Amino acid sequence: SGGTGSNFVVTPKKNKPMPGAINGLSSADASRIQQHVIGAFPITDSYKLIAADANKNNSVTAADANLITQAILGNPVAQNWFSNNTWRFVPKAYVFPVPTSPWGFPETITLTGGASDQDFIGCKLGDVNTTANPANFAGSVVPELIWSVQDKLVQAGEEFTIDFNANGFDELLALQFALRFDPEKLQMLEVLPLNGGPLQTGNFGLFNLAGGEIRSVLAMTQTMSWPEGATAFQIRFKALENNVLLSDVLNLDASIIDC
Fold first, then answer.
1. Least confident of 6-10, 81-85, 103-107
2. CA 244/CA 160 separation, integer angstroms
3. What is d(CA 110, CA 93) in angstroms, rounded to the nearest whole number?
4. Per residue in 170-206, pLDDT tens?
5. pTM for the full model?
6. Cis, peptide link before residue 106, omega less than 30° from 0
7. Which residues, including other chains, have CB under 8 Å from residue 140's CB and lie 6 or more apart?
8. CB-based contact 169:145 (threshold 8 Å)
9. Do 238 and 187 form a contact (C-beta atoms < 8 A)?
10. Which residues contact 16 (CB under 8 A, 6 or more apart)?
11. To which H or E segment does residue 49 belong?
12. What are the CA-CA distances from residue 188 to residues 162, 185, 210 (Å)?
């Protein structure tokens, strides 16, 4: 804020470090943007369009969906962007001349004289479905996708491939999950997508393998199903110690990203 005399310009800012920078961002947001881009399900709400313009270039494109996906996958460049561009604010009294093209809106309020009670409406960049608001968490019904893996006892130096079999992969539009493995006991060698499988190389984020993280995000414009119990992808590992039981060193971790 600043100004001279009795006039003040109020410019709100609210940027958050990780993980708060991407709180509320999900594969569902990326899918929603992709549907808008191809015209299948246009976004018409001005504030949701502002949120969908994740890269702040005054348009909603596939690049915005990709930026969200990369941030969830753990790409530090994308995460840094949201840390420095977490929220945008629109004066509450502002009326969009063209609601479906809100670009060019003011992001400040000039207070003159004794003006008061001037409010802003905040838009969390990337959060098109407004799940960043904790009040919206209750009551949502999320399809239950379960990954099943055959447990195995492995020895030091042994290389092996794990099949990730899908259960409940039925009419899904988007999904995300994070695998946590013990990097002192396992070394991740490679992700092995299946030909025609739902998850390909670009759906995995391997930015923090040293910390034992494997992230995955899939955001589509149309729903997809996968045969019950069928292998959807594989990951190759190498055991670094003797007598390592997979169930002790590999699991889903919702603390990394919601899954």
1. 6-10
2. 12
3. 12
4. 999 999 999 999 999 999 999 999 999 999 999 999 9
5. 0.89
6. no
7. none
8. yes
9. yes
10. 23, 83, 86
11. helix 46-52
12. 11, 10, 9
